[in-house]
Amino acid sequence: MSVFKVFISYSWCDSEKRSAVYNALKSIDQIEIDYDDKIVGYDDDNIWKKIYDGVSEADAIIVLLTKSSMSSSAVLDEVARAHDRGLSFITVVEKDEDISSGSESHKIPVYLRYKKHLMYSSGEGHDAFVDDLSREVRNIAGKGPRLALKELSKLRNIVTGKSCVKVLDMVLSRVISQAGMEASDILKQSYEINLGTEFDFLNRAAPLFASAQKVFAITISSVSSFWTDYKNISNAVDYLLAQKGEIIRIFVFDSPVAMLKYREILDANYCQYGDRGGAVFVTSVERYLSHIVNPFSGAVNKCDLLKSDFGVLEYGGQNKLFAWLRDSYLGFRPSNNPPKELLIDVGRFRSSLRMMKAECRSGYSDKFNVWLWDGEMANRENLKKCVETFFGEAPGSVVHLVLFKKYDEELASVIARVRHNISSLTDYYGVNSVGFNCDDVWYGQNMVDLEEYDAYTRGVLRHDKEYRYLLYMRLPTKADLHGWYQYEKHSLMREEIYVKLVKSVRSLYDRIRKLKKGGQAIELTSSDVNVEIKKIYSEIEARVSKKMVRMDYQDIERVESMMSIHPYPFLEKYKSVANVESFDTAK
User: What is the pLDDT of residue 1?
Assistant: First the structure.
């Protein structure tokens, strides 16, 4: 538990009462008590600064409300300072003293005037006062960490310090400003805050880029979700508008769909800096990993580079920062000390992008494996050619279907269990270690009693009642399908379903286990054993095929059919804020 600091504000005429309060507080553990005489020496030249610092560093303030203290400008100033910092107040009034009337009563601040005061007594009732005071302090300290407005005051002083780097001041100012508004809403009991990662990133990243004279950056489309978050579009536009230096950025896409959806974002980036001495490049994940990163990254597993956006920001002279965005983390540090997990050679990284900008004139560059995004991309054919260059007629996702004829509640239970086992292979963060990825798995029952009428012919559309259950899996690639078939537990799941479909296959599976010497996973050396096992598996499939059908399909993504994909709406918002009239994009 951290120490809870309490400051006692009182008039020197009430020193005896202050001593009584101090003594009462000393019995409470983890409490640090300050007052003027304790923190200021008699020969101190800066008395008031030390007193004000004592108030600023406190978590709560105890005010001895007497006629003397309400006549003290020092006490009133301490109280006002504590209120400005959002501190908790405990007010103490001497028993039988009426402070609500008289010439000084109007000086009591409104936020203290109507509080419930603790009644101090030096005689009878003193023990009760000590108990009440101790209880009140413990209640405040037990509420946990407050949003300390006093810390904002300290940070403001740091921000104005001449020794700080300007860009770091700007980031700090943005964070402090946001925290100040949040604190104000909390105190008003009217609180609403955007907790999204995108908002937090944009709030901090904009000032980093605003002061940069040069930026060399990599943007992974699957990482930079803030570009496509419509709720944060205004913040994303402000973030882009802040980038006014010489900027070279490579956008990396994992699919043709992602590239086409980004085209308005790419157009806006070109308008902002690509047409003003900078450059916007696009490439695919495959070419990024196989060609582009080799000169500047020593990462053993190049795929780790797909988890982070990163860039080098130059502010003039020797002031350079390395900034990166990974998952929900934004970081920046001196450019000579990038994160070890990225293994980026900053010098070679900057040189590679500089050379890319100097030598790429338009369209695709075989040398650098990038496409220069410019005003010509408004032409539909140029856009199509760009996508085809990187992706062509790319094989898409794979669908694995298993349809079952038999109606059996036990079978349904087994299939449902298999479905949940498949779902559990990928954890909450999308990570698995089983050798394949599965985007979706679904299990359902045929609605055999459903009949619908065709709206045009009025004919009855009847369902095939033969297949009662369906197990559906969608996998990203054909390689993932192979991984599913080779997965060690796949055969066990399949056996469980097959035995429910056709009980007689259980003996065939037992026969296979005997041939494998008790089911142990050993290398089979006898060709006769191999032949026998294959015959048994063929017999199992033949028996089960009368009860189920298995099918695998793969989507073929043709660029021409994808050209009608709507992009994320970004350009019009950017143009309205930036007052850009030119550069009409392909629709």
Answer: 43
Q: Which CATH number is 4-146's, of 3.40.50.10140, 3.40.50.2300, 3.40.50.2000, 3.40.50.300? A: 3.40.50.10140
Q: Give me the phi and psi of 200, to 5 degrees please.
A: -60, -40
d(CA 330, CA 197): 9
Task: Tokens for 164, please give them.
Answer: 């700080």
Nearest partner of 474 among 566, 399, 578, 571, judged by Cα: 399
Quote the tokens at residue 449: 């009693």
CA torsion sign for 383, 389, 390, 395 is: positive
Taking Cα atoms as reference points, which of 244, 248, 242 lies closest to residue 216? 248
The token pair at 283 is 């490439």
What is d(CA 243, CA 207) in angstroms, rounded to the nearest whole number?
Answer: 9
d(CA 291, CA 310): 18
The dihedral region occupied by 96, where left means phi > 0, alpha psi between -120 and 50, and beta the remainder, is left
Position 159 confidence tier, pLDDT thresholds 50, 70, 90: very low
Close Cβ partners of 25 (under 8 Å, ≥ 6 residues apart): 6, 31, 33, 62, 133, 134, 137
**Average of per-residue pLDDT across 397-419:** 86
Q: What is the mean pLDDT of the chain?
A: 79
Mean pLDDT calculated for residue range 350-378:
92
pTM metric for this prediction: 0.52
Reading the block at residue 309, the tokens are 């956006």
Give the residue-averaged pLDDT of 567-585.
78
Highest mean pLDDT among 145-159, 231-245, 497-511: 497-511
Q: Where are the domains of the chain?
A: 4-146, 151-187, 197-393+568-578, 396-505+548-556
Tokens linked to 24: 């009462």
Closest CA to 68 of 102, 35, 95: 102
C-alpha 78/C-alpha 87 separation (Å) is: 11
Structure-block tokens of residue 195: 């907790």
Segment 423-451, tens digit of pLDDT: 777 543 344 556 778 888 898 888 877 77
Tell me the per-residue pLDDT of 307-321, one tens digit each, with 9 for 90 and over. Answer: 889 999 998 777 788
Residue 252: pLDDT band with limits 50, 70, 90: very high
Tell me the three state secondary structure of residue 191: coil
The C-alpha torsion from 419 through 420 and 425 to 428, rounded to 10°, is 130
Q: What CATH number belongs to 396-505+548-556?
A: 3.30.70.100
CA-to-CA distance for 269 and 259, rounded, in angstroms?
A: 14
Distance CA 226, CA 174 (A): 18
Residue 114 to residue 109: CA distance in whole angstroms: 9
pLDDT over threshold 60, residue 187: no
Number of Cα atoms under 13 Å in the Cβ half of residue 437: 9
The two tokens of residue 342 are 């990225």
Q: Looking up tokens 């509640």, which residue turns up?
A: 409
Across 62-71, 111-120, 348-357, 364-373, least confident range: 111-120
Q: Which two tokens stand for residue 145?
A: 């960490």
Sign, CA torsion 403/404/408/412: negative
Q: Are 208 and 167 in contact (CB under 8 A)?
A: yes
